[in-house]
Amino acid sequence: SNPQFQAAVPILRRIEDAGFEAYFVGGCVRDALLGLPIHDVDIATSAYPAEVKGIFRRTVDTGIQHGTVTVLDHGAGYEVTTFRTESGYQDFRRPDSVQFVRSLKEDQLRRDFTVNALAARHDGTVIDNFDGLTDLHNHVLRAVGRPDDRFGEDALRMMRAVRFQSQLGFALEPATAQGISDNAPLLQHIAVERIASEFTRLLLGIDRRAGLQTLIDTDLYRYCPQLADARAALNHLAALPDTQLQDPAVAWTLMVVLVGAPVNRFLRAWKQSNDLIATVSAAAAIWPLLGDTIPDHWALYTAGRTGLRIALEAYVHVHPDFNSTPVQAAYDALAIHDKGELALTGSDLIQAGMQPGRAMGQALRRAEEAVVAGSVPNTKNALLAYVRV
Ligand code: ATP
Ligand code: MG
């Protein structure tokens, strides 16, 4: 019934017509059964990659060593992955080898949670080898097989567990939670980028509180960057009003403000982008000035439009009664919002007889501060007079 599945049905049929099995698998099946929007459709097949490439005219080897071939069809791309098992996991993260297999059940066995191990035929029939449907209906997240083994194989699954708990609003089955408690230190072997990506998704989920609570109760947080001693801050975060967060910058602003860590060091340790670090730094810098009084002009100006918006969103989240309108109005009323809007430039100063150099930089800075403060009009003549050239 879902248009995204409908568009992919001919792909499954072509594979079947060639004598192989093909199924929708993973998050798309789970989300469709939950009535949630689906992002991308994943297909699993008994055909080996070379066989998949033989069936379709246009394919791309997106992850051929893991068995993934992207099939191009009517401008869309579909990831078709050969059934596989994984073995090894000597380093608690990636399998030492993947083995292509012909059986769906073996492929489902390697998946992390029962609700992620569902498969569906092109007619919508669900193949459920691990009681994933029962867990789906009960909103329970349960490891496939023995939790201890599964988290020992791949420690990222522990972060995926708390992420899905928040994203789906599911409860964590007790033995699965126990498995996280028992294996939490293994998270140290996982790349920070991957931990961060799951953590951000946890923070943006519908049940952030539950995901954070598991992170705290299992001690998993102790193996996340910069959080070893942040139990109190995480408890505080978990106790905030549980309205969903939409923006990673807002989520990370709340994190750094509650943890009280230097923003740059904290977010570098989490391997966040320069863009996010700049925005969160600006937001965190103006945060302490929010409250009963309006921040001074220069603080508003240096926060910038984005930094201020993120700070206000985060602040309102912690203080739901805070009225951000006057602060926003004060920002909007600033004479300039960017250095580029200043009516005085370096070449103006050179024309007026000044030598390029340190003094000129200082003069421009004084002009900028005076215009932002509202004490000098933003015109060339007024500013030339003000800097006394
Ligand atoms: P979403 O797309 O919302 O992130 P998803 O379930 O599709 O959810 P993906 O990371 O896209 O998550 O992975 C697709 C599927 O691959 C999962 O549903 C799961 O069956 C399997 N999978 C992914 N990562 C792992 C892992 N680390 N261990 C075991 N199985 C995994
Ligand atoms: Mg997915």
TrEMBL record:
Protein name in the entry: CCA-adding enzyme
Function, as annotated: Catalyzes the addition and repair of the essential 3'-terminal CCA sequence in tRNAs without using a nucleic acid template. Adds these three nucleotides in the order of C, C, and A to the tRNA nucleotide-73, using CTP and ATP as substrates and producing inorganic pyrophosphate. tRNA 3'-terminal CCA addition is required both for tRNA processing and repair. Also involved in tRNA surveillance by mediating tandem CCA addition to generate a CCACCA at the 3' terminus of unstable tRNAs. While stable tRNAs receive only 3'-terminal CCA, unstable tRNAs are marked with CCACCA and rapidly degraded.
Residue stretches making up the tRNA nucleotidyltransferase/poly(A) polymerase RNA and SrmB- binding domain: 169-229
Similarity annotation: Belongs to the tRNA nucleotidyltransferase/poly(A) polymerase family. Bacterial CCA-adding enzyme type 3 subfamily.
Provenance organism: Lacticaseibacillus pantheris DSM 15945 = JCM 12539 = NBRC 106106
UniProt-listed HAMAP family: CCA_bact_type3
Any single GO BP term: tRNA 3'-terminal CCA addition
EC number(s) per entry: 2.7.7.72
Catalytic activity from the UniProt record: a tRNA with a 3' CCA end + 2 CTP + ATP = a tRNA with a 3' CCACCA end + 3 diphosphate; a tRNA precursor + 2 CTP + ATP = a tRNA with a 3' CCA end + 3 diphosphate
Assembly description: Homodimer.
Note: A single active site specifically recognizes both ATP and CTP and is responsible for their addition.
Entries under InterPro entries matching the protein: Bact_CCA-adding_enz_type3_sf, CCA-adding_enz_C, CCA-adding_enz_firmicutes, NT_sf, PolA_pol_head_dom, PolyA_RNA-bd
Needed cofactors: Mg(2+)
Binding sites annotated in the UniProt record for ATP: G27, R30, R111, D154, R157, R160, R163
